[in-house]
Fold this protein.
Amino acid sequence: MFRKIIALSLMTGFVGSLGAAPASASLEEFAKRAAKFNAVVTLPQFEVTTNQVRDTLRQTIAGGNAGLDKVGALKPAQVTFENTVGALDDVGYQISLTADRLSLIKETSTNAAIREAATDAIKELEEWMVGLDYREDVYKAVKAYADRKPKLAGEEAKLLFETMRDYRRAGLDLPKPQRDEVERMRKQLASLATDFESNVTKAQKAVKFTKAELEGVPESFLEQFKTGTDEYTVMANVTFQYLAVEDNAAREETRKKLLIEHDNLARADNIPLLEKILPLRDDIAKKLGYKTWADYQTEVKMVKNAATAIEFVQKLKTGLQPKFDAEIAEFRKLKVKQTGDAKAQINIWDWRYFSNELKKEKYTVDAEQLRVYFPYQKALEGMFDIYQSIFGLKFEKLDPPYKWIGDLQLYGVSDADTGEPMGLFYLDMFPREGKYNHFAQFGIIGGKQIAGGKYQRPTVALICNFPSPTKDKPSLLAHSDVETLFHEFGHAMHSILTRAKFSRFAGSSVPRDFVEAPSQMLENWVWDKKVLDSFAADYRDPSKKIPAEILAKLKEARLAVEGTRYRRQLSFGSVDLTLHTQIHDGNARDTLPLANKVLSDVFFPLAPDTAFVAYFGHLMHYDAGYYGYAWADAIAADMATVFERAPNGYFDKSAGRRLRTEIYEPGDSRDVNISIEKFLGRPRSIEPFLKKIGIEKPLADSR
Ligand SMILES: [Zn+2]
């Protein structure tokens, strides 16, 4: 019920109203305009000392407990929607405001002590939140309301249904002894899962090679690996080192040796743990009335049950077979040529190397040379122009009263037709010491209907790490950076444009196997020549646009190994679903052989005596969920067709408007399956995805 704290999670903040800090005129202006629309726009009041962080934590926990005490004290005759489920949404919202703000501080503060205080506070907050589901007084009050079978509709009905479902999923509707047992097992599971993850983090393996053995690996890496005269040490657990060798080492024995070490990381500790975790999950699921853990996990996702997820993975696996075979044949040709062995086969330690060779040989294209077309500011403005136009919005630069970093920017988003303010976003785009080192959208203040029928509009932040500008050059983005920008800003749109009443459903708080789909769809934009020509030009001579043949080659190169890429993904999805449907108390010792069989069946036969699953961290935080990557890709490709078939393609305003009203605005306030179909104007289809990844034959005739 109280969501775990994750980036991309939404929640909100009340916090400092604009009046509290001396706001710039334009920001005040923006807030005033919002008031005319019965909306509230707010900037968070950031904690700037470790004491403030601790005070906030204390106040949040006290406030949360007080809010729940109020619900728990209700007599059955007093319960209403507002004072039970509605109140829980309010309590969750307040907690989320703190959690989200502190998460942002943890990732962006320039002060190490504050980052550390925020990290500690979040940990404490999470531990406290675990117990909230088990407050029996609160459960009784909510149940008293549900037992009246109130006539609710729409979002209210969904909120009551899902709140009760959360309680059932936590075991609250079981008789006391079984409920206590489930709670105990969940705690045990959490602790075993933490152990598994820390074993993955801790696992290390140094593998030594001679220079000759590393033939093909670029000089720049060799310099880093050198540990003696003709001794080079590669850490199997450091991804970039592992990939540098697997992608480039010309000698098969080298690739094989390193892969075997990699696929045995954490084996001794984590296989015994998995043999405990999987049966425990199975047991919890059964106690809660589910057939399998995968059924339990998928109940709250788009797929809704394990069978649908398994069928999806199976069908796609079969559908990909011809393309996968053809790609392996290409790899094999290269290997035969290279080794002179007419019978050479492609093994699991070969595919990375030969896909790299294939790209080099067939699609000689240096993605680096595209950077000159993507100076950061132009790319940003180009994306702004497109999103403003297709979604019917206006972005205006505002002056933030408080900046955690000098080059921080703040923008207000409003509806282009009516001027209605929709929300705010910060941009913190360049790397620095101690900052979050990926690219993500962080929710800070989530959307929610608040007192007096007013609507709290969202505030979010884009935290990125684009190359910093230098003295003589602007920040020049890689094509993949531009793709990331379009993707992450899509999440910002999802958050900001929400009109869901309740915090639980606002913006991107949609099922995890859907949340990436709209943003993945928007990645298509940067592969379109027309889109790129609207903003990309050589910064030294803006009359020069991206040559069409470079873009075409990049696309071809990507498509050339899609079969291999997806079969690998599906092997992970498949092993995840298999373990979470088939392993139970009686067959726990089959975990490793079963996992290896599935992986070998869907991808390449594994190297002998390896234990890949011991190092597969997704089994802990994405359990029975890995299928979701391909699932969301399929929906993204399907959704992209709405633009591709529209008169103005990726610039089409009516398609963009439909994305806004049917996907972004409702968020999770209605079943996303319905939202997707409304956006598509037809039932979902997997065909566009198959076409995109190079499968011509429809899946129907393959089983
Ligand atoms: Zn994303």
